[in-house]
Design goal:
This is Alpha/beta hydrolase. With 254 residues, the chain is α/β, with parallel strands linked by helices. It contains 11 helices and 9 strands. The protein has 2 domains: 177 residues, Rossmann fold; 60 residues, no CATH class. Strand 8, helix 9 and strand 9 form a beta-alpha-beta unit. The two termini are 34 Å apart.
Length: 254
């Protein structure tokens, strides 16, 4: 699995990992801020962006994909920042390469299995688009809108709609994501705790990190620190990029 990635800046290495339905570009605001002092690698996870598709979609496999890129580039030490699903990939990566990982930053995600189905409307919208031959992006949005009411979510999804020949298609693997949704919402079996520097950043209005998850977070990441960003939801890094960048930079400089 040869992941697509892009590189910016120079200095110590930081790996940025996007969330579900995203791509390397989703953490672009962070990358543009961090590249002034770090060498920033933004990856497309399997089944997303320009990376290959696969029916296999576990967190250990996704973390190994990222580690393979790191090994290929000859990187000895690195820090990693992951948002949402990418946060779980980052946490799984900590288990695979604990001695190489200098800082682990998790944006609005916990190392737990979530029980609620949060994306059924998105799946319905993606499948609706796939049921038609799309020649204009506006057509895709019309079909999406039948199931996805939030215009911001539609625009986010449409970033992964690409023209191939005369028609538009999703870059992410819709069928593969749907088939593995329970795995994506779940969490991997227990691994050795990561005792390195760890920071969880929560959006105040998001419910992905809850007080009842604290014991599980501390069991798996005993050195974890936490920071809450006021008046933000799950997309805290897009809602308050300067605040999130400042929090991350302060943590990386310690």
């Amino acid at each position: 699995m040869n992941l697509h990635y892009q590189v910016e800046g120079d200095g110590k290495t930081i790996i940025l990992i996007h969330g579900l339905f995203g791509s390397a570009a989703n953490l672009g605001l962070l990358a543009r801020s961090l590249k002034n002092n770090y060498k920033v690698f933004s990856v497309d996870l399997r089944n997303h962006g320009l990376s290959p598709h696969s029916d296999h979609f576990t967190y250990q496999e996704m973390a190994q994909d990222v580690l393979n890129v790191i090994k290929h580039l000859g990187i000895d030490q690195f820090s990693v920042i992951g948002h949402s699903m990418g946060g779980k990939v980052a946490m799984a990566l900590a288990a695979l390469a604990p001695n190489q990982l200098e800082h682990l930053v998790v944006l609005d995600m916990a190392p737990v299995s979530y029980q609620a189905h949060r994306h059924q409307n998105v799946f319905n919208g993606l499948k609706e688009v796939n049921n038609h031959t799309i020649t204009k992006r506006s057509e895709a949005e019309q079909f999406l809108a039948q199931h996805v009411e939030d215009a911001g979510v539609r625009q986010f999804l449409l970033k992964s709609l690409a023209k191939q020949g005369e028609h538009y298609q999703w870059r992410f693997n819709v069928d593969g994501i749907i088939a593995n949704y329970s795995t994506i919402m779940g969490w991997q079996p227990a691994v050795e705790p990561f005792k390195g520097k760890t920071l969880f950043i929560k959006g105040q209005e998001s419910d992905y990190i809850m007080p009842e998850y604290r014991d599980e977070i501390m069991r798996q990441f005993p050195q974890a620190k936490a920071h809450m960003v006021a008046n933000t939801g799950h997309w805290l890094h897009a809602e308050k990029p300067e605040t999130v960048t400042r929090i991350i930079t302060n943590f990386l400089d310690k």
